[in-house]
Input
Amino acid sequence: MFKNILVPTDLSEKSIKALEIALNMSNKGDRRITFLHIIERIEDSDEDELKSFYDKLASRARLKMKEMVTPYSDRKVEIDNEIIFGNRVGEIVDFAHKHDIDLIILSSHKLKKADAVEDWATISYKVGILAPCPVMMVK
Output
């Protein structure tokens, strides 16, 4: 049912659980997982002035993503690592549109009763509302 799964990552250990769920859902045949990291740009900044800074962030992210997916290299599922620059929510939703994503699996957190209204503004909840496909939030 889900052939093209997107797993956004903030490079934290929480993302590994979402990746493992995607892998377990992808045991059969021609499934593809995209492990996506978005590097947030500093608004109203000089792109040229910060180029080396962004290049270093991308290089570190590439190494961390490779480290995160290496333990699963024996699986017969293709895992693509992608790095994009921009707004995290907008880029995740846009990526899902452009790449015919069937399912987004991303880490989230449990709502705190005391801060429930504040928790609705998280990236995972915004993606859940705006995505063009089903979204699974992993707590």
